[in-house]
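Handout, section B. The chain below has 605 residues.
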Amino acid sequence: MVTAAVESITRRIRERSAPTRNAYLQRIERHARRERSTDRMGCANVAHAFAALPSHDKLRVVAQRAPHIGVVSAYNDMLSAHQPYESYPAVIRDAARKLGATVQVAGGVPAMCDGVTQGLPGMELSLFSRDTIAMATAIALTHDVFDAALLLGVCDKIVPGLLIGALHFGHLPCVFIPAGPMGTGLSNSAKSKVRERAAQGHVGREALLEAESAAYHGPGTCTFYGTANSNQMLLEAMGLHVPGSAFVHPHASLREALTREAVATVLRRVQGPNFLPIGQLVDDRVIVNAMVALLATGGSTNHLIHWVAVARAAGILIDWSDFAELSATTPLLARVYPNGAADVNQFQAAGGPGFVLRELLDAGLMHDDVPAVSERGLRAHAEVPALQGEQLRWSALPADSGDTQIVRKAVAPFSASGGLKLLIGNLGRAVIKVSAVPNDRHVIEAPAKVFASQEALLQAFNAGMLERDFIAVVRFQGPRANGMPELHKLTPPLAVLQGRGFKVALVTDGRMSGASGKVPAAIHVSPEALAGGPLAKVRDGDLIRLDAVAGTLQALVEPASWAAREPAVLDEAAAEANGHGLGRELFAGLRRNVVSAEEGACSWM
């Protein structure tokens, strides 16, 4: 049984979502009731679909009506996390054939690396790449010959995009297959110190590149607990992985066994009494479980956008108030960088997602009466997988944490509430990740210093113009303005100024990286400045109060004067620059149609 608070929030979401959820379920039921693909399609359609299959696979899928799995892959070898996927289709085909099924790679989806594009024009395509991935997933699956789907993706926008796309084919059973994190390299805290020294000019490019290359050094996800690894935590909490597969190294022998098990798992969900399409699996309780897991681990702020969009794809309506209320009742059970010193490998060794999920389930903070791809239910995700000979087996985790500086029991958490807070005031609605911010920085009151780009702030820092208490207001960074890029490049200079004893904070309608958090940052401010949001009214020198304790974000300006102010407008040259170069022209329609960050920054609604 869940606590009264979790049940109340879930019930509110269910009631709010009833019309859209019921319509969604009716749609997927209609698709699930249809004849099998090869029976309802014309002969030419069938011939085209399977022309390239080996003859024995054609016989299986057409004449013998064997289950047919579509694979949607985000493979490319630009992303370290996705490079291991190169060999997965062969493994999946082999596993499927041994189980009497057939497989086709239905399509590939684009996958960009935010680490490559941070601070560069390409970052302005990053958020919209999520919806592009969802559309590419739909194109892959719209051949409509599949009985199930396997989804291969790990990183920031890729998992939400694949999940949104899959939910639009909610009549299909689906399993996500991760690839795992790279081995531990230079610690994240050491890397950050080098970045701060570089921002001050104390070390040069050679030393900085050496540190970065020691941190990001091999196949697998980056080892900090940013958006990519938060994705994996949330998929475990939603029961969409083979249990315990999130943080196993790409080259571990266990990894291939888990991939083969994913094939067997999805096939068990294809037909009969165990039939479980993804659209039925992802219900309001499962969405709440994902939200709680995010809050309990101090996960990426990006998911206050992405999981709103994911929920909407399943006909479920959530907002930041739901996150805030869940955060107030969810204990913080993990400290992984930037929320602590450990990386995800150390988190895994200390108990990892399984330990956190067990504690949350036992404390009644997550729904345990939910479906999962494993027939053993969500409780299976609180166990640890291992190879015993050639057999994959799961066992119970130890009762106690392997390291109480990294993960703790629910009865002795790092804090009584989760890592995220909602801020409301005359500047709009925003979110802040408080779990990584020192307690003495949870309230900042200082004059505003207004910038229209992160480059302008960096220039002011380099010119020595920011040696003071101030709140940086970086506006015109929302989804309609320029695609809502992450402003990760601002973390080192602001951290330097904070380290010098100045009271500093950031207020922006843009995003921060999932790896950020040291400096207080009110982010995703909605409505955004370009949409007429009040952030456009702020002037240099206005006293701003960011209060993460009270949950407020205020410009301390006399109300009549504030109401009379004309909002600033985006400079025409800046608007022109935001819309051109490196493919940004192609995303003009998405910028025009996108809804607010709190509505999921969806371009498809």
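Note. The chain has two domains: 4-34+66-183+218-385, 420-599. Compare this with the example in section A.
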